[in-house]
Amino acid sequence: MPAAIRARGLEKRFKSVHALRGIDLDIEQGEFFALLGPNGAGKTTFISILAGLTRATAGRAEVMGHDVARDYREARRQLGVVPQELVFDPFFTVRESLCFQSGYFGLRRNDAWIDELLLHLGLADKADTNMRRLSGGMKRRVLVAQALVHRPPVIVLDEPTAGVDVELRQSLWAFVRRLNREGHTILLTTHYLEEAEALCERVAMLKEGRVVALDRTADLLGAAGERRLELKLAPARLPASLEGRLVACSGDRYCLALPDYAELESILATLRQADVTVEEMALTQADLEDVFVRVMREAGG
Amino acid sequence: MSGFRMLLHKEILRFWKVMLQTVAAPVLTALLYLLIFSHVLEAHVEVYPGVGYSAFLMPGLIMMSVLQNAFANSSSSLIQSKITGNIVFVLLPPFSHLEFLLAYLLAAMARGLLVGLGVAAVGLLFTDLPLAHPAWLLAYALSASAVFGCIGIFAGIWADKFDHLAGVQNFVIMPLTFLSGVFYSIHSLPPFWQAVSHLNPVFYMIDGFRYGFFGVSDVSPWLGMAIVLPSAALLTLAAWLLLRSGYKLRH
Asked: Does an H or E element contain A13, and which?
């Protein structure tokens, strides 16, 4: 089974920018994969090369085993791209836009699937509305539908939720999750790291055109360190036996290391015995944002 | 079915939906030229024996409209898509370079020919035209509109903004078409300007097209076709190579 997306030594130089400096990456079929990185890290360039919107300077890329340069027609059939920019053709209605896109891929009589897309993306009552008259969120939904109209096995979403309201974000993710369950491979770029954390099994982080982290989301979070227990105590005094756990303290607020949930009981018992009351308590854990910040700092540059 | 037919269909629908600007407006412009120039010159100018000035003017006006609108269609479609960004919708599908080229080219020719037919239909209300060699008419209309459709593709791909395109329109297309003998026979020009006119490919398009109506022209229609047809073929090839290179579109 070929990888859904495979890159080997992929490089891209623009006139003054070295956008990709040798990307090696395999995304397996059926994965929900996040490509993260600050602006200018090369995420969109990587996607553009996959989609044939720009050409690599060196190295190669494949979609479902088809080289994106040599075998570009087959590679493009396998790929659906939701572009980052909110683009639309003002001459046409929603349904016309979808019919054209469908026809471009050689599919006629695709109305049943188009209707299904319209329904799932909440566009059914806008089918005959001109693209110009749609709100930004609605245009975004049409872009998603256009990318899916030829039922591509590999779907790329380039920052699909930038500037999108909560309701659409949730319905969009529900729909994309369903597609993933049905076997579609999803490649996502986003600045909302909590989305990537919630959705994606694996994550690659890019910085200045290089992959600086690549792992399962759970492992990245696990390696990122321990849980913390934040307490507000009255009186503001920590029993001596707990001082070994102290990570930080300011005034009556204490932050303790909590490697294992099972230790929570004994900590609370110790406090009770010392006649210290817990006024507020919170558990915190490193999230993908912490990991991201640390990886970006450690990657230097 | 390949995506080609859908792209062609879309490109034709694009100008069809705004016909008032893309077809009716150029027909009206040509009609104004016809009415004004023939009003001023009808009594004074007889280029070919027995052919009134307004009849003489018609083929040139038709051809000029064909050329300008073939150019306008492919160039404006591409630049609009580039500037609004919706060009991705035609860059993402698996078109071959030839399919992409032919869809834009044939749509450009279709608009050129449609406007040409419109100008002819309206013009015939005001003046009579013989029809000496319809096959030449068709051959010239097709090959000349292909030349300008291709130029429109070059301009549309090259231009980064509407100003660039307006520059090509004003400094290349307009002079080439206006100085090609639309409004006069180049035999009426001084020898130097006659020689210069022979370097203008549009001259042969107008002249050969006129031959199709009157059976008379300044140069042989065969000579004209020997220039126009290879030009169309070479430009089509060049446009194909440009698309294949990814110039500006897949930078």
From this structure: strand A5-13
Q: Which range is least confidently modeled, B100-104, B194-198, B218-222?
A: B194-198
- In chain B, where the domains are located: 3-245
- Global pTM value: 0.90
Helix (H) or strand (E) holding B18, with range, is: none
Give me the residue label for tokens 């300077």. Answer: A57
Neighbours of B20 (CB within 10 A): 9
Partners of residue B100 in chain A, C-beta under 8 Å: none
* Beta carbons of B7 and A106 less than 8 Å apart: no
For residue range B215-225, what is the model confidence (pLDDT) as tens digits?
999 999 999 99
Is A9 within 8 Å of chain B by CB? no
String of b and e for B48-77 (b: at least 16 CB within 10 Å)?
Answer: beebbbbbbbbbbbbbbbbbbbbbbbbbbb
CATH ID of A5-222, from 3.40.470.10, 3.40.50.300, 2.10.50.10, 3.40.50.2300 = 3.40.50.300
Domain boundaries, chain A: 5-222, 226-285
Q: Which of A54, A89, A104 sits opposite B86 (nearest CB)?
A: A89
Residues from chain A contacting residue B2 (CB–CB below 8 Å): 106
